[in-house]
Amino acid sequence: MLTDADIQSHADRIRDDGYTVIERAASPELVEGLKAAVLRIEREHDLGLAKTSFEGFKTLRINNLLTYDDLFWEVPLHENVLPVVERVLDRECLLSSFCSLVLGPGQEAQPIHEDTQLIPLPRPHIPITINAIWALTDFRDDNGATRILPGSHKFPTSPEYGKEYDAVTATMPAGSVMLFDSALWHGGGANTSDARRFAFSCAYCWGWMRQQENLQLGIPRETAVRFPRRLQELCGYGVYKGQFGHIDNRDPIELLGRERGKRMVWEATDVKKARMANQ
Length: 279
Ligand SMILES: O=C(O)CCC(=O)C(=O)O
Description:
The protein is α+β, with helices and mostly antiparallel strands and 279 residues long.
């Protein structure tokens, strides 16, 4: 488990270099279980390869992963990952998207891109999304390990789509997680090996932002009700700073049967005022 100093040092690296690697963050048992679940779902749901050059014609992606297997719930909540994200964003951050990224042999390198380039904010900007790439197999030069340009989150522009850049390969053993500021220039590598590269992308954003996947509609209510409370909050059943996301002045977590939702900021202000007046 990460110490407070570890958490801070990973958060500092994300701020300074744009990325950090948490080596062997997940246990081998969890990694094997996750991989087996991905294989089972691919089989049972007869899922096909992606259909765009960006997503990869030899890549199999499963979106909305939390709906498929309860074991996946452990990923966004992982104790060696989430505290680092919370240190860079805050504790009211959200899960933005969560998908599998399985690159088959022959998959070409993905164009270098960054994940915030459609958001009309001048670069460089504060980290607004943090992506966690989970390596479920060893990430090697020859099997499609993610390529990154360290420090590029501070560049004043986004990369030119389709242009070749001098990137480094984020090689890491299975079970490791690379966390990066999504403004970092990056892309999946080419898989020239004869085996599949298994990975997850689990991205988090601020609580005041729109999530990339619509998790409140995409995850059936009967599934969300069974989530641990923290996962419900991460999926958007919460109110950022007691202001953004309420339903008729109520915290949406109460829709899932939870008690003691957050008070709205305007109510909380009156309660505070009354308390001070009574002192
Ligand atoms: O597959 C990878 O290593 C990275 C994928 C990625 O960056 C993306 O699809 O946006």
